[in-house]
Amino acid sequence: MKFGCHVSIVGKIYLAVERAVARGCETMQIFSGNPRGWKNPDILDEDIKEFNLRRKKAGIDPLVIHMPYLINLGSSDVDIHSKSVVAMLNAIERAKKLNAYYLVFHPGSHRGTGRKNGLKKVAKSLESLIPMIDGEMKILLENTAGSGFSLGSTFEELSIILNELNWDNRLGICLDTCHAYAAGYDISTKEGLSDVLRKLDERIGLDKLFLIHANDSKFPLNSHVDRHAGIGKGYIGTEGFKKIVNHSALKSLPCILETPHVNEKDDMYNLNLIKNMREES
Ligand SMILES: [Zn+2]
Ligand SMILES: [Zn+2]
User: Fold this and answer.
1) Using an 8 Å Cβ cutoff, are 63 and 30 in contact?
2) The pLDDT value given to residue 68
3) Distance 58 CA to ligand 1 centre (A)
């Protein structure tokens, strides 16, 4: 596994690379723009050039872009839905310029209009977006903790979206360990992990899994609460992560940490911890 952190793009976008280097990242994730707002100021071409140059020099790869949390492709609110599609379009354009491999998003929420409806809506929206993707880039659906009306907490729901789009090879899955655990998938034990990966393989296919988000869970199994903990500091635990990191089906995937941090030292601590779990094969 290649490990990295989610790093901030505050200031100039290319400073994200410096932050990733300082933390010891081998791969990295950034937000495409403002994570909690709709407005995304244009990034200067020269800043993009600088970003690409610095990342190449640092040898950090792949680059993952995470969509803002406001995005809801499953929304039946016309305004929110159209804003979400535009934000996705902008993010795809940006991802292309930054040579990102993966664009990750949460499937969103149906807000009471029904699961089936919501999933259909997400699929329909993606249908209009995937033609914009070229090369090796992929849009990844991230599994969610499944609180309230949120979509995509089960492999079944994710597979419904992918199936609607005929398993298009520009789409894939990002598995967040905290979300999976909170949604009831017990990946904290060896047997549990094998069982969950078997289910994932049956429903979706392990060949559709491109990225891991490694976060421990502050809340118990099946709690449906999305609250990340530092590696080994939650219910998945150190032993759980050792199994995840070295599992034959996962160990060649890039892995991003979204663990709580006050400063960069916390990221460095978690990153070192998980890097040291890698066993020689
Ligand atoms: Zn995540
Ligand atoms: Zn989360």
Assistant:
1) yes
2) 86
3) 24
